[in-house]
UniProtKB/TrEMBL annotation:
This is Amidohydrolase family protein. The keyword Chaperone does not apply. One of its GO terms (molecular function) is hydrolase activity, acting on carbon-nitrogen (but not peptide) bonds. It comes from the Bacteria. The keyword Cell inner membrane does not apply. InterPro entries: Amidohydro-rel, Metal-dep_hydrolase_composite, Metal_Hydrolase, MTA/SAH_deaminase. Residues 59-412 form the Amidohydrolase-related domain. PANTHER family: AMIDOHYDROLASE-RELATED DOMAIN-CONTAINING PROTEIN (PTHR43794:SF11), AMINOHYDROLASE SSNA-RELATED (PTHR43794).
């Protein structure tokens, strides 16, 4: 057998059907596809154009981030963390989002992708909040990452004089145009008809976006019920809780990814399970935002009912999926005083295989196995958090984080090498992002809030 690249001597967490963990293992790939995974001795006969000594590496599949706002990075650290949810969105987040120029959104997106690549994320599902859609798509096309992107889409007419039907037509037309221009036809980065969610989409848009996703083989991702406000609104305006209303519309199903889902009741959890709807949890963002996820979240119950639960990093402050995965492996143990809930191996499945399922890519990503895409992360075990190396899965989740990621391959292309991105000029990107952030925040007129003086 011949291969383009052979990594040999590594410890490999395969995530394959048997969940093999191979010590002194090897993996070979040609083009964008893995052609062999086994003990190094078993692959000794493979001829490869490039042979990499993996003796200091732990190899894992690329991580899958199923909810991330990639154009928030320029306002990182600026949003006060102690404000009510509605005030945070209405006064800070949304105005700052909408004041970004297209160039600023593009740079913010590249900065988020650099952070994801360098911490082992190879695929992401964007949160449906891109405004300068074409400019962002053009800017990230050559980063090497795999992604599904959605534009900022809502159509509810909050003002009595607004053209409600016109808003719906415009929203659907924009989504249709995105899918036509950036189809899910094998390319790494494609469009999805995502919705902002909450209560911002009308019933008509929910139904039509769902039809569009089913016709094109894509999916819909939307925010729902991080706090009680969503269900309170739906109860007041429809007489049903949020997920119950979506069920009545006929829009639940395997095409749909609902994000947050903290303030739901058992009847809503049952509807999600019965319909095959996916749920993405963002534990880091939920805890920092004070959503009440530990006492209220029904994630253990949903998991037991067979709901596919994936993970996301959400906003600007953290793009490290390993930090998120570690939280998932601990927070409900504490809330329920039950150490058996979401052990490390289940949390890792959420960050890989379950995320792949959300994206409809289970046959291509999420595991290191023959025929799968060569999306590979090499963690450097020559670091104190990795030694001694006893149980690779436990230590990946409990001891390590994204800072140990040495190299990353996506579709067989090495996009991170020796802790640096190979597809972008990091130093120039960081400098540009700093200057743009100062411009965005300066235009906003909002204060930099700090309990301690910044001189």
């Amino acid at each position: 057998m011949q291969a383009d690249t052979l990594i040999t001597g590594a410890t490999i967490i395969t995530m394959d059907a048997r969940r093999r963990i191979i010590r002194d293992g090897a993996i070979a790939f040609s083009g964008d596809t893995i052609v062999a995974v086994d003990k190094a001795a078993a692959l000794a006969g493979i001829e490869a154009a490039e042979v990499i000594d993996g003796s200091s590496f732990l190899l894992t599949p690329g991580l899958v981030n199923c909810h991330v706002h990639i154009t928030e990075t320029l306002i990182r650290g600026f949003i006060p963390g102690d404000l009510p949810f509605d005030e945070t969105l209405g006064r800070w987040v949304i105005p700052l989002y909408k004041d970004h120029t297209p160039a600023e959104q593009a740079t913010a997106a590249k900065l988020a992708i650099a952070a994801m690549l360098r911490t082992g994320t190879t695929t992401f599902l964007e949160a449906g909040t891109i405004i300068a859609f074409d400019e962002v798509m053009a800017a990230i096309d050559d980063t090497g990452i795999r992604a599904r992107i959605g534009r900022w889409t809502e159509d509810r007419a909050w003002e009595p004089a607004a053209d409600a039907e016109g808003l719906t037509r415009a929203a659907l037309a924009a989504l249709g145009n995105d899918l036509a221009r950036y189809p899910q036809d094998g390319r790494r980065i494609a469009a999805w008809p995502n919705l902002i969610g909450h209560m911002t989409a009308t019933d008509a848009l929910w139904r039509q976006a769902t039809d569009l996703a089913k016709r094109t083989g894509t999916g819909v991702s939307a925010h729902m019920s991080p706090v009680s406000g969503d269900s309170n609104w739906y109860l007041a305006n429809t007489g049903r809780r949020a997920v119950q209303h979506l069920s009545d519309l006929g829009v639940l199903g395997e095409h749909l990814n609902l994000v947050h889902m903290v303030h739901i009741d058992s009847s809503e959890a049952d509807l999600v399970a019965a319909s095959g709807t996916h749920v993405t949890h963002c534990p880091d963002a939920s805890i920092r935002s004070g959503y009440g996820v530990t006492p209220r979240g029904l994630f253990p119950e949903m998991a037991r009912a067979g709901v596919n639960i994936a993970l996301g990093t959400d906003g600007a402050d953290n793009h490290d999926m390993l930090r998120v995965t570690a939280l998932m492996a601990s927070l409900f143990r504490d809330a329920r005083e039950d150490r058996s809930i979401f052990p490390a191996h289940e949390a890792l499945e959420m960050a890989t295989l379950n995320g792949a399922k959300v994206l409809g890519l289970s046959d291509r990503i999420g595991a290191l196995a023959v025929g799968m895409k060569a999306d590979i992360v090499a963690h450097d075990t020559r670091r104190p958090e990795w030694r001694p190396l006893n149980n690779p899965v436990e230590q990946l989740i409990a001891s390590a984080d994204g800072r140990s990621v040495h190299s990353v391959w996506i579709d067989g292309l090495r996009v991170v090498d020796d802790y640096r991105c190979t597809t972008m000029d990091e130093d120039a990107l960081f400098e540009e992002a700093q200057a743009m952030a100062e411009a965005v925040l300066g235009r906003s007129g909002l204060p930099l809030v700090s309990e301690w003086p910044i001189e």
